[in-house]
Amino acid sequence: MQKFFSIIMMAVCLAPTLSMAKPDEALVYEKSSVNVSSLNMEQILSRIYQTQALAVPEELEHISSAPKAIIQVRGTEKEQYLLSLLPVVSYKNTSGELRYLLVMQKNKYYDGQIMSCRACSADADMFIFKQIDGRYYLVNSKFNMTDLPGGDGELKLDLEQVSKNIQAFGPELTGSYFEAEFSGAGGQSSSGWYALLLAEQTPIQWVFIGDAGGDTSSFYADRPEMAWTTTSTLKVIPNKSTYYPIQVRYKGVGAQLKKAEISYKTFEFDRKTSSYIEKKSVKK
C-alpha cells in the first residue's frame, strides 16, 4: 500500500523580524473572583486584561469583522498587540454544565502594522466561562498560546468545526477537534488534525494530532497520472484512559490506482510531552 504522504511547507517571512520581549505568562488575579456582565471586548479588556484599548488604525479594520483592540503589554513602553475577539462557542462539559469558550487572537503590532508573513500564524489567549445569575465567571484561562496553525497572520481555527465536534476526550475531559488546511508554493495542499482540550482544572491545550490529508493534483497538472489525493475522518475512541485514543481513517486515490487505498492510524496522548503520538502496530 502506498504510504500516506506528508507535505512539509517551508516559507520565508515577508515582514521584518523584530526582537520583542515575551509577555507575562498570565495576569495576576484570582480566577474565582473574575466575572463580567457580558462576553464582549469592553468587558474582557477591563476585567481580564485590566487595561484600556488604544485606537485601531482604519487600515486594520478590514482584516476581519471581529471586534478589535490594541493593547500595550504591562511593564513595557513599546510592546503592543492587536487583539481580535473571535465568536464565542457555547458547549456542555462532561458533567452536562454549560460553558462558554472565548478565543482572543493576538498579533504583534508595531508602528501601525501587524507582524505577519505568508506562513506566520497569530498567538492566542483562551478563556472558559460559566454563567451564574446573569454574570459570566472565569473557569479557566490560558495566555500566550503559540505555535498554532495559521498563515498570513491569522489563526486557522474553524470555530464551526469546534462547535460541531465538542465531545468527551476523557472521562472528565471535554474537547473538540478540527482540520486546518495549508497550501504550498507549488500548488499542492495538505491538512492536519488538531485537538482543543478544554480542561477546567489543568491548562487548556491546543494539540496537533496528525496528518489529515493532501492533494497534489495542482502540482502534477501536467502529469495527472502522478497526482495523489488523501482524505480522512477522525473518531475519538472512549475507553478507561484519562485521555481517550483517537483513530484516523485515511482514503487515498490516484497514482493509477484501480481502487482507493484505505488505512488507519491510532494516536494516543502522551502526558509527559502533552502531545499525541502514533501508536505503532505490533507485528505478530
In short:
The protein is mostly beta strands and 284 residues long. The protein is 5% helix and 44% strand. The longest helix is centred in the N-terminal third of the chain and has 9 residues, at 41-49.
- Give the count of structural domains: 2
Q: Assess the beta-strand content as a share of residues.
A: 35-45%
The number of distinct β-strands equals 18
Q: What would you report as the Rg, rounded to the nearest angstrom?
A: 21 Å
Percent of residues in helical segments? under 10%
Largest sheet: 8 strands, antiparallel
- Rough outline: globular
- How far apart are the termini? 19 Å
Mean pLDDT: 83
Uncertain runs: 1-30
Q: What are the secondary-structure elements, in order, as H or E?
A: EHEEEEEEEEEHEEEEEEEE
What structural class should be given to the helix and strand makeup? mainly beta
DSSP helical segment count: 2
